[in-house]
Amino acid sequence: MRINIKKTEAITISRNETTIAFNIEGNALLNATEFKYLGSIFTKDGRIDREIEVRCQKANSISYQLAPLLKHESIPIATKAKLINSIFLTILTYQCQTWPLTQGLKNKLVTCKMSQKGSK
User: Fold this and answer.
1) Residue 52: phi, psi to the nearest 5?
2) How many CB atoms lie within 10 A of CB 97?
3) DSSP state of 25
4) Which of 27, 82, 96, 113 has its CA 20 to 30 A from that of 10?
5) How many angstroms separate the CA atoms of 120 and 115, rounded?
6) To which H or E segment does residue 23 belong?
7) What is the DSSP track for 85-106?
8) Any idea what the Cα angle at residue 98 is, between residues 96 and 101, rounded to 5°?
9) How far apart (Å, rounded) are the C-alpha atoms in residues 60 and 53?
10) Could you tell me the sign of the dihedral formed by the alpha carbons of 90, 91, 92, 93, in that order?
């Protein structure tokens, strides 16, 4: 396996402000502050605030795209609820099983969900 040193970055995840210099064959790697892996965002301080922010933005974007369907009078409420549960909530809570939520982050998620209910 060959590593492209110009495209490779390293991240140190720590609650303390620490920076470790990574070298491959004498070439220093860039230190990243954020890293996206399998759709999740890892930050150097280990917090998930950025992940929640991005999830809310994506869910709100989908909500905006679904708005014509959710406001359409001839679509039954049950169908609208299925759309919200299968698309909006799935995007909002993707990989949420691993989130260590604080009360502030829970409030952000609830606010995002409630703003969706208000757009019907």
Assistant:
1) -65, -40
2) 6
3) T
4) 96
5) 9
6) strand 23-24
7) IIIIHHHHTTTGGG----HHHH
8) 75
9) 11
10) positive
Q: From 1, 22, 47, select the one nearest 9 (Cα to Cα).
A: 22
User: Do the Cβ atoms of 32 and 11 come closer than 8 Å?
Assistant: yes
- Mean pLDDT on 106-112: 88
Kindly report, residue by residue over 57-81, the tens digit of the pLDDT.
998 898 889 899 888 999 999 998 8
CA distance 60 to 83: 14
Could you write out the three-class secondary structure of 28-79? ECEECCEEEECCEEEECCCCCHHHHHHHHHHHHHHHHHHHHHHHCCCCCHHH
> Is pTM, for the whole model, over 0.85?
no
Bridge-based pairing of strands 30-31 and 9-10 is parallel
